[in-house]
Structure formats: C-alpha cells, structure tokens
Amino acid sequence: MQAREDGAGQAARSKRADARRNEETLLDAAAAVFVASGVEAPVRDIAAEAGVGVGTIYRHFPTRADLIVAVYRHQVEACAEAGPALLASSATPYAALGQWVDQFVDFLVTKHGLAAVLQPENTGFDTLHAYFLDRLVPVCTQLLDAAAASGEIRPGLDAYELMRGVGNLCIGADSDPRYNARHLVELLIAGLRRPD
C-alpha cells in the first residue's frame, strides 16, 4: 500500500513540476512578445511564440490582465534570482551589476504596459509595486555592496535611487525611436565607477 501512495505522490509532484514548466514557458513567451510588441500584442502571437494553442493561454490566464500580472511577477522573480547567480558567475561584482541592470531594463520595458491594465489607484497595482520593491531592492543592494567592497564603485550608493534612475531613463523609449534608453543606462552605470 505504501509503495502505491509513494508512486502516486511522485506522479502528482511530477505533474505539478510539468505544469510549472509549461506556465513558465508561456510567461517567457509572453514577456518576449510584450518586449517586442507591447502588452496589447495579440494572444495568437504569444501562443505562436510559446508553441501552444490560444486556448491553452486562456486556460492559464483568462484575461489579459491576469497574463500581464503573471508576467510581471515572473519577471520580478527572474530578476531577483539573477542577482546572486550573476555575482557567483561573473568576472567581477561590477560586471554582475551591469548584467543585472541590463536584465532589469528588459523587465522595465515589459512593466511599462502594466499601467495600461492596472491604474495606480487600484490596490492590485500597489500590491505589485510593493512586491517589486521587496524583491528587487535587496538584490540591487547586494550587487552594489559587492561592487563597492571590491573597490570598483563608490561606496554608499542607494539601490532604490539607482533603480528609480534606471526606470526614469527607460520612460519614453517606446515613443521616440531615436531615444536609446539602454545606452543612457550604460552611461549611468559607468558613472558609478570609483575614480582612479
């Protein structure tokens, strides 16, 4: 009897793991389409990117708002997990910081469409913003502290201020094709370096 229960439990865990991977595939595809075409991109484009039918997306995310919020949370988690991984794998803490900020910029490009779905006076928006800050400010702090401890950047930089500055540089990038937010963010990060 115990062996049957163990097998059933393992099968259920395996099914949950498969469902999580499938949902992550959908969210990654949606994020890629949102970055390329905005959050109003047709669901069929997301389905094609994910290699699934449109109905599969609607089964997981009944409304566009559900999908956008899920992508937002998924990308926050990916950004949060990337910080420590980059610190462990990059040549220097400053390089890790630069790579993380680059990923943060990709996230911000997707995030801008959230305002079209959730209004700032909506409590859901406030909850997501608090989630964003709670997950990402500590990661950015860790990266800044590591780069400062290695002597690559000035000490005492505030993660929230840096993230806010990067966010402000990204505003308007979608409305002016000559505006290169990524280049300006690179200049900002270069400006963090400790003078020789």
UniProtKB/TrEMBL annotation:
Gene3D superfamilies given in the database record: Tetracycline Repressor, domain 2
Keywords: DNA-binding, Transcription, Transcription regulation
PROSITE patterns found in the cross-reference section: HTH_TETR_2 (PS50977)
Domain of life: Bacteria
Domain HTH tetR-type: 20-79
Protein's name in the database: TetR/AcrR family transcriptional regulator
UniProt lineage: Bacteria, Bacillati, Actinomycetota, Actinomycetes, Kitasatosporales
Record-linked SUPFAM superfamilies: Homeodomain-like, Tetracyclin repressor-like, C-terminal domain
Pfam families: TetR_C_43, TetR_N
Signal peptide residue numbers: none
UniProt organism field: Streptomyces oryzae
DNA-binding region, residue intervals: 42-61
